[in-house]
Design a protein that fits this description.
- Pfam families: CBS, TAL_FSA.
- This is Fructose-6-phosphate aldolase, TalC/MipB family.
- InterPro entries: Aldolase_TIM, CBS_dom, CBS_dom_sf, TAL/FSA.
- Keywords: CBS domain, Schiff base.
- The chain is α/β, with parallel strands linked by helices.
- The protein folds into two domains: 196 residues, Aldolase class I (TIM Barrel); 134 residues, Roll (CBS-domain), CATH 3.10.580.
- It contains 15 helices and 14 strands.
- It has an eight-stranded parallel beta barrel with strand order 1-2-3-4-5-6-7-8, surrounded by five helices. It has a three-stranded mixed beta sheet with strand order 9-10-11.
- Helix 4 packs across helix 5 and helix 6 packs parallel to helix 8.
- The two termini are 39 Å apart.
- 32% of the residues are buried.
C-alpha cells in the first residue's frame, strides 16, 4: 500500500520526507489557505522539488477548463511523471481525466461518495480513485463499506486505478485501509508519527537498552561527574558547604595521600547533630569514625553495580580505582547515559 503525506506545512513536509520511503504528497487549496499561502503557484513549484510525487488540484467548470488548468501548472516547470492532478468527480471531471490520461498524465478522481462515481472514474482511466473517509463519516455516510466496494470494483474488473483512502482522522483509519485492501493511503504527519507507537514496544525497547547498558558499560564510564571530596582535616561545616555546593547527599573523606577514610552522608549529619548538637560542626572530618562504605571498582560492569545496589539497598555506591575513590555511582546512573 502506497503511503502519501497529506499536508501543506512546509516544515513538516521536509521532516516527513526524511523517512525516505514515502510515495509522495497530497495537498489541497484548503490546506494551503490554512497555512497562510499567498502565492499558490510558487508554493506548488517549491513542493515539487521536495517530494517524489506531488498531487495537486486541477479545477474548472468544464473539461477544457480543467485540462487548461493542468497545462498551466505543468508550464510552471512541473515534471509530468511526478505530478498527479486531483479532479473532483463530475461528468466534466471524468471527461478531463480521460483527456489527460490519454496524454500519459496521472489523475486522481476524488470526492467520491458513491460506487457509481467510482465506476465512472475507473472507466475514465483514473490513476487514483479517492474516497474521503473521515469527511464522509462526519456527514453520516458509511465510508468503509464504500471503500470496500470500490476496492472490489477495481480488483474484480481489472481496472488500473488505485483506491486511495484519504481524510484520515485517526490511526484506526490506517488499519481500516489495510484490512480493506486499499492500494494507497494519505495520512497527516501527526498521525503518521503515531503509527509506530505502542506502550509495550516502548517498555520492551527500554528494557533492551537498559540491559545492554548493564553488560557493556563499565562503572567508571557511568559515574556522576558530581564527586564532592574533602580532606580529613576540614571541618564538618566546610564539608556541609561542599555537599550543598554540589547538591549531593554525601562527601568522600580522604587522608593526605588521597586514600579513602570513609563516606559521610546527610544521614550521618542528622545523627551527629542529634547526638552532639551544633558543637560537632567545628570537628574535623578525620575525627569521626567511619564504617566500610559500599564500594565497587570502576573497571567492573554496571551489572555488578546493579547487583550490589540490590544487595545493600543503598542509593549511592563509592567507586574506586585501585582502592582510591574516583567518584560516586547513583542508582539512577544505571539507566541514564
Amino acid at each position: 500500500m502506497e503511503l502519501y503525506l497529506d499536508s501543506a506545512d512546509l516544515k513538516e513536509i521536509k521532516e516527513a520526507f526524511q523517512l525516505g520511503f514515502l510515495t509522495g504528497l497530497t495537498t489541497t487549496p484548503t490546506f494551503m489557505h490554512r497555512e497562510g499561502v499567498r502565492d499558490l503557484d510558487a508554493t506548488i513549484v517549491e513542493l515539487s522539488k521536495i517530494v517524489p510525487v506531488l498531487q495537486i488540484e486541477a479545477l474548472g467548470e468544464t473539461a477544457e477548463d480543467i485540462v487548461a488548468d493542468a497545462d498551466r501548472q505543468l508550464a510552471l516547470g512541473l515534471d509530468p511523471q511526478r505530478t498527479v492532478f486531483k479532479i473532483p468527480v463530475s461528468l466534466e471531471g471524468v471527461k478531463a481525466c480521460r483527456a489527460l490520461v490519454a496524454r500519459g498524465l496521472k489523475v486522481n478522481i476524488h470526492l467520491v461518495y458513491t460506487i457509481q462515481q467510482a465506476y465512472m472514474a475507473a472507466a475514465a482511466g483514473a490513476t487514483y480513485i479517492c474516497v474521503l473517509a473521515g469527511r464522509m463519516q462526519d456527514q453520516g455516510y458509511d465510508a468503509l463499506t464504500l471503500i470496500s466496494d470500490v476496492v472490489e470494483l477495481v480488483d474484480s474488473y481489472g481496472y488500473d486505478s488505485k483506491v486511495m483512502f484519504s481524510s484520515v482522522r485517526n490511526t484506526e483509519h490506517v488499519r481500516n485501509a489495510i484490512e480493506l485492501g486499499c492500494h494507497t493511503i494519505t495520512v497527516p504527519w501527526k498521525l503518521m508519527k503515531a503509527l509506530t507507537e505502542n506502550n509495550f514496544t516502548a517498555i520492551g525497547t527500554n528494557q533492551f537498552i537498559e540491559h545492554t547498558r548493564l553488560i557493556t558499560v563499565k562503572v567508571k564510564e557511568a559515574i556522576n561527574d558530581i564527586n564532592p571530596v574533602v580532606a580529613e582535616d576540614v571541618t564538618l561545616t566546610e564539608a556541609i558547604v561542599k555537599m550543598t555546593e554540589f547538591g549531593f547527599g554525601c562527601v568522600t573523606v580522604v587522608d593526605g595521600a588521597g586514600n579513602l577514610k570513609g563516606v559521610f552522608t546527610d544521614g550521618d549529619l542528622r545523627r551527629k547533630l542529634a547526638e552532639g548538637g551544633r558543637e560537632i560542626l567545628s570537628q574535623t572530618m578525620g575525627s569521626f569514625t567511619y564504617g566500610t562504605p559500599v564500594s565497587i571498582e570502576g573497571e567492573q560492569l554496571l551489572d555488578a553495580a546493579a547487583a550490589l545496589f540490590k544487595k545493600t539497598s543503598v542509593d549511592t555506591i563509592l567507586v574506586t580505582e585501585n582502592g582510591k575513590p574516583v567518584g560516586m555511582l547513583d542508582i539512577q546512573d544505571l539507566k541514564n547515559d
